[in-house]
Amino acid sequence: MAATSAAPAAANAAGASVYNTNCASCHQATGVGVAGAFPPLAGNPTVTGPAAKVIHIVKYGLQGAIVVKGKSYNGMMPPWGTTLSNADIAAVISYVRSSWGNAASPVTVADVKAVAK
């Protein structure tokens, strides 16, 4: 059993590392965001919904008004597709989709590659 759980644990550690380095300063270490500035990732239906949408946001960024959990945000998320590898993007999205009470399926490198602008 330890052998089968080693790969997901390693992937989760890689995703946590990418998150802590690149995302936590805005979305916070606990994924709760900052009210009025940076939306929460914990319990966010965009994060736990269809993977293609969150992949697109991480790869290409997002600008303009959005509403998350009934609260408005009007900022800009930078595009990470030119900074992070497809493997890093898959790892960090998988980490976020399975952290802080989120329970969505992981994302693969193939999933990330398949999402075009």
List the helices and strands and how they pair.
Elements: H1 2-22, H2 24-27, H3 45-48, H4 51-60, E1 62-68, E2 71-77, H5 86-97, H6 109-114
Antiparallel strand pairs: 1-2
Helix pairs in contact: 1-5
InterPro entries: Cyt_c-like_dom, Cyt_c-like_dom_sf, Cyt_C_IC, Cytochrome_c-type_DH
Domain Cytochrome c: 10-100
GO molecular function: electron transfer activity; heme binding; iron ion binding
Describe this structure in words.
One of its GO terms (molecular function) is heme binding. This protein is mostly helical. The relative contact order is 0.20. The model has no long low-confidence stretch (mean pLDDT 92). It has helices at 2-22, 24-27, 45-48, 51-60, 86-97, 109-114; strands spanning 62-68, 71-77. The chain has one domain (2-114): Cytochrome Bc1 Complex, Chain D, domain 2 (Orthogonal Bundle). The protein starts with a helix and ends with a helix.
Rounded radius of gyration (Å): 14 Å
Number of helices, where a helix is a run of at least 4 consecutive DSSP H or I residues = 6
At the first level of CATH, what is the class? Mainly Alpha
3D shape: globular
How many structurally independent domains?
A: 1
What is the average of the pLDDT values? Answer: 92
Give the name of the CATH architecture: Orthogonal Bundle
Structural class: mainly alpha
Helix share bin: 40-55%
Name the CATH superfamily assignment.
Answer: Cytochrome c-like domain
Q: What is the subunit organization of this protein?
A: single chain
Task: Give the strand order of the largest sheet, numbering strands 1, 2, ... along the chain.
Answer: 1-2
Protein name: Cytochrome c-552 (Cytochrome c552)
Keywords: Electron transport, Heme, Iron, Metal-binding, Transport
GO molecular function: electron transfer activity; heme binding; iron ion binding
Domain Cytochrome c: 10-100
